[in-house]
Amino acid sequence: MVLDQLDQQATIETDRFDLRPLRLSDTGLIEHYAGDVRVAKMTAPIPHPYPPGAAEAYVTRGMSAEQGEFIWAMDGTKDGNSELMGVISLKSMDRNQSEVGYWVAPPFWNTGLASMAVSLLVEANPLRDATMFASVFQDNPASARVLAHCGFEYLGDAESYSVARNANVPTWTYSRKL
């Protein structure tokens, strides 16, 4: 069953922050934070240096109804924080599965934000998945702890190409049955 994008990307609210669909005003903060080498090197797709126009293309793709990846901003304005503290996404896969991806801006590291965002997305399950997958670089144990804390189970080792590192990087892969 295919849902329209508004159903899939409803805002998910908490007392501390909201997960909301991307909007054009997010472009500047995405460019700022994704351009930070510490963020880029912990993700597979973010290049470093972050090229001009990449943030606009990312936001445009995230706002597209037919792109297969649904991206939410971690918006902390209700708690006096930044309009964009990070992003979290679900990329549709076959057989009623999705891949979770996320990054948190450095000022919000070690605050529990990533764990809360992943937990919220799992609980909301907006794509009505049977299983969610995620992988993290092995030199990022904090992200591995986030996934374990959110009920993801370790599946095994693999590797992913990191654009920022220009290299294949060992990963740990996790899944969560819903």
What does this 3D model show about the protein?
The protein is of the alpha+beta class. The chain has a domain at 5-127: Aminopeptidase, CATH 3.40.630.30. The chain has six helices and eight strands. It has helices at 5-8, 27-34, 37-40, 54-63, 113-124, 141-149, and strands spanning 12-13, 18-21, 69-75, 86-93, 97-104, 131-137, 153-162, 167-177. An eight-stranded mixed sheet has the order 1-2-3-4-5-6-8-7, with helices on both faces. Helix 2 packs across helix 4 (54-63).
Secondary structure elements and pairings:
Layout: H1 5-8, E1 12-13, E2 18-21, H2 27-34, H3 37-40, H4 54-63, E3 69-75, E4 86-93, E5 97-104, H5 113-124, E6 131-137, H6 141-149, E7 153-162, E8 167-177
Helix pairs in contact: 2-4
Largest sheet: 8 strands, mixed
**Weakly predicted, low-confidence segments:** 1-6
The level 1 CATH classification of the domain at 5-127 is Alpha Beta
- Estimate the helix proportion, in percent: 25-40%
What's this entry about, in short?
The chain has 178 residues and is α+β, with helices and mostly antiparallel strands. The protein is built from 6 helices and 8 strands.
Keywords:
8 strands, Aminopeptidase, 178 residues, 26% helix, disordered N terminus, eight-stranded mixed β-sheet, 6 helices, alpha+beta
